[in-house]
From TrEMBL:
<feature type="transmembrane region" description="Helical">
    <location>
        <begin position="408"/>
        <end position="433"/>
    </location>
</feature>
<feature type="transmembrane region" description="Helical">
    <location>
        <begin position="472"/>
        <end position="500"/>
    </location>
</feature>
<keyword id="KW-0472">Membrane</keyword>
<keyword id="KW-0813">Transport</keyword>
<protein>
    <submittedName>
        <fullName>Fusaric acid resistance protein FusB</fullName>
    </submittedName>
</protein>
<keyword id="KW-0812">Transmembrane</keyword>
<feature type="transmembrane region" description="Helical">
    <location>
        <begin position="21"/>
        <end position="39"/>
    </location>
</feature>
<keyword id="KW-1003">Cell membrane</keyword>
<feature type="transmembrane region" description="Helical">
    <location>
        <begin position="445"/>
        <end position="465"/>
    </location>
</feature>
<feature type="transmembrane region" description="Helical">
    <location>
        <begin position="68"/>
        <end position="87"/>
    </location>
</feature>
<keyword id="KW-1133">Transmembrane helix</keyword>
<feature type="transmembrane region" description="Helical">
    <location>
        <begin position="94"/>
        <end position="112"/>
    </location>
</feature>
<dbReference type="Pfam" id="PF04632">
    <property type="entry name" value="FUSC"/>
</dbReference>
<dbReference type="InterPro" id="IPR006726">
    <property type="entry name" value="PHBA_efflux_AaeB/fusaric-R"/>
</dbReference>
<feature type="transmembrane region" description="Helical">
    <location>
        <begin position="520"/>
        <end position="543"/>
    </location>
</feature>
């Protein structure tokens, strides 16, 4: 019987790695708590909390998060001291600047490279800045004269927790560099195998190939996000393996985009391949199916590259044979126009297949460079970010309004626990305002906080009333903390587990000279629960996330991007276009929620189609800049590009003109194809026709998506 990890299986039957993580982190947090008590620090619970905040399942993630957390702590500490020093007796200005400060951290964090998830530790640096800024300033405003000592105490807890977690986790690593290298290779093999199987299905005539490609695109993004952690684990001895691995995964995405070109050609006018193309494509299909096992079985990539080179030569030979048949010998009779068109279309198929193989070759070369570091290598592949200013402003304003509202509650009610309430609201805003759906994350956090309150209540009011030594207290805390560590590894409970692990030490409030009584405990637990509940509803009411609006804005941005590519002086690279649309692709899937599958599928198809059009527009502009086309052909393509520059503009109505101009350019280039005697000009015409065929096909089959006058599939936008 297959065991399923559901219900309480994560607690009574955890995996060995999950249990190891939970045990290691529990012991480390208790050590941090013990040292803080030994040093007689005022709030030792913050040291244990920091351990849980930094600790992750792998060494690379832990170190990366620790570095950015330390950076955020320094920034937040400096800003908190300046805030309290500036407004010690002005509560409204203090609240306003606290809200603006955390909003600014959210604004900056949203614009940093990488996805806005809890695994992106650049953004976590800004979250840690807001977190530290809040806890120091809100603690220090009650005693402004000692703000420097308060800040140093809080910074000491955080540094202690970070150092201990990093030290203890390093003791449990074995052959870390080798395992990191193996993980880089495994990630690429997973991505390239998915892409290869998708392309093999395309060549076999599978009509559902585009749906398979969607999963591969999402997988590429996920795997690429993990590379920086492997780089950390490789340590000081690493070279540019991570850069090559990122470039290899980017090439896999480019490989799939080339596959979309071939799919458009096969389903369009070129969809009846001749015997030569059928023979070559069957060989390529067989090669793609068994390529990944070959790469996994041996580190020597040369046999695979040799087979690939033979297939590339076969594609080039097919193109040459077709040209020879069409152009004939000098002085021979003109070729039949229908035959010219048929031969041209077959060359397009062979050309597109050859481009797929060329992209595959580049991906394999980058993969080999990541497995076998090169001497004196200076290769660098920069991380891309596709954040927009509107989203950053929305996240910032949402956090600022929520925190300022909590401050007004404190000022107007004179609540004795108002500062504690504000602190918890500020912590949640710092952590979740950079997410697109902070209300859902806060709801999960609220559930974890309620469980932590119940467990802490039992411990504070019953078990911890008896121990007189640290050792007995640690025994009492061991099992509750271990349970939180086990829950962290279960995806369905991860946010609730984070909340539980963070807030349990705060609710316990251990100290050398005191214990929490019933009043002190409830004055901490009640502001915690109320603060998270308030933040959850504030996130729902203040600039709430709307999936319909997100998709509409995404579609508008896609149409605007196509116009920009057609007329921009500085063209974006093809890799940039692919990665930007893959980012949109993943964002759409991440925020699907309860949206009907038909709408999600239609938008995914639209994104892939827009990416395909954008890439071919870039290639057409490169053709125009070479000035090898005959003047009439150059003019026809330029007219089409002019229409594309106004494509689906603000007032609509340009979609039909662009589609017609693409067909008009195809007709003109086909008429001139048989008249070109120069081989270079003939090949240039074929290249332009390939791009035009693909653009025309995509415009015809996704008309509603590209026509800005159409509300498309969202009833809310209609």
């Amino acid at each position: 019987m297959t065991l399923r990890q559901d219900h309480l299986r994560w607690l009574y039957a955890p995996g060995i790695f999950t249990f190891g993580y939970a045990l290691r982190t529990t012991i480390t947090s208790l050590i941090a708590l013990g040292i803080a008590l030994w040093w007689e620090l005022g709030s030792p619970q913050w040291a244990a909390l920091t351990v849980w905040m930094v600790a992750q399942g792998t060494r690379g993630k832990s170190v990366a998060k620790a570095r950015w957390h330390l950076f955020g702590m320094v920034v937040g500490t400096v800003c908190a001291v300046l805030l309290v020093a500036a407004f010690p007796q002005a509560p409204l200005m203090f609240i306003l600047m606290l809200a603006i400060g955390i909003g600014s951290f959210c604004f900056i964090g949203t614009l940093l490279p990488g996805p806005a998830t809890m695994t992106n530790y650049r953004i976590h640096g800004m979250r840690a800045s807001g977190f530290t800024y809040a806890i120091i300033s809100l603690d220090g405003i009650a005693d402004p004269e000692h703000i420097f000592m308060t800040a140093m105490a809080r910074a000491t807890y955080i540094v202690l927790g970070i150092v201990l977690e990093s030290t203890v986790s390093s003791l449990f690593q074995f052959k870390l560099e080798e395992r990191a290298q193996d993980r880089l290779a495994a990630n690429f093999l997973t991505a390239i195998n998915g892409a290869a199987q998708t392309l093999a299905s395309l060549l076999s005539g599978d009509a559902q190939v585009l749906k398979k490609a969607r999963g591969v695109f999402s997988n590429i993004t996920t795997l690429s996000d993990q590379i920086e952690f492997a780089e950390v684990e490789m340590g000081s001895h690493r070279g540019h393996e991570g850069d090559h691995a990122r470039a290899a995964l980017a090439r896999v995405a480019m490989l799939l985009s080339r596959g979309l070109d071939l799919a458009a050609l096969m389903q369009g006018p070129c969809g009846m391949p001749d015997a030569a193309f059928a023979a070559t494509s069957s060989k390529v299909e067989a090669f793609l199916k068994d390529m990944a096992p070959q790469l996994e079985a041996s580190e020597d990539i040369h046999p695979v590259l040799a087979r690939l080179a033979a297939l590339q030569a076969a594609c080039r030979q097919s193109v040459a044979d077709s040209l020879d048949e069409e152009m004939g010998s000098p002085g021979s009779a003109p070729t039949d126009p229908q035959l010219v068109q048929m031969l041209s279309q077959q060359r397009m198929l062979n050309y597109a297949l050859g481009e797929i193989l060329d992209e595959l070759e580049q991906a394999l070369i980058q993969f080999d460079a990541s497995r076998h570091p090169l001497l004196h290598d200076h290769f660098h592949y920069r991380l891309k970010t596709f954040r927009d200013w509107q989203q950053a402003f929305t996240n910032s304003l949402r956090a600022s309004v929520t925190i300022f509202g909590s401050g007004l509650i404190w000022v107007t009610t004179s609540w004795s626990s108002g500062l504690t309430f504000m602190m918890f609201v500020s912590i949640v805003c710092s952590l979740f305002s950079t997410l697109e759906k902070p209300a859902l994350a806060t709801r999960a956090f609220l559930g974890g906080a309620i469980i932590a309150s119940i467990v802490a209540g039992i411990l504070v009011l019953w078990r911890l009333a008896e121990p007189t030594t640290y050792e007995i207290m640690a025994v009492c805390l061991f099992l509750p903390m271990l349970a939180g560590g086990l829950a962290f590894a279960y995806p369905a409970l991860v946010l609730g587990a984070v909340s539980y692990n963070l807030f349990l030490p705060i609710l316990l409030g251990p100290g050398n000279q005191s214990r929490l009584d019933e009043v002190a405990f409830f004055n901490t637990a009640m502001p915690l629960v109320l603060g998270l509940w308030y933040a959850m509803w504030s996130f729902r009411l203040v600039l709430p996330f709307d999936t319909n609006d997100m998709r509409w804005q995404m579609r508008t941005g896609i149409l605007r991007g196509l116009r920009y590519i057609a007329r921009a002086r500085n063209l974006p690279t093809t890799l940039y276009v692919v990665e930007h649309n893959v980012d949109r692709f993943v964002r759409l899937l991440t925020n699907a929620e309860n949206t009907p599958d038909t709408i999600i599928d239609a938008y995914l198809q639209g994104i892939l189609s827009a990416m395909t059009i954008g890439l071919n527009v870039i290639r057409l502009r490169a053709i125009l800049e070479r000035h090898l086309l005959p003047p009439e052909a150059q003019r026809a393509v330029s007219d089409m590009m002019g229409r594309m520059a106004q494509f689906s503009g603000r007032y609509g109505g340009h979609y039909g003109r662009t589609a017609r101009s693409a067909k008009f350019a195809i007709v003109h280039l086909q008429q001139m194809a048989g008249q070109a005697d120069n081989l270079g000009v003939r090949l240039e015409i074929d290249s332009a026709l390939t791009c035009l065929y693909v653009i025309s096909y995509e415009l015809d089959h996704n008309q509603k998506f590209f026509d800005a006058s159409s509300p498309y599939l969202d009833p809310v936008m209609a």
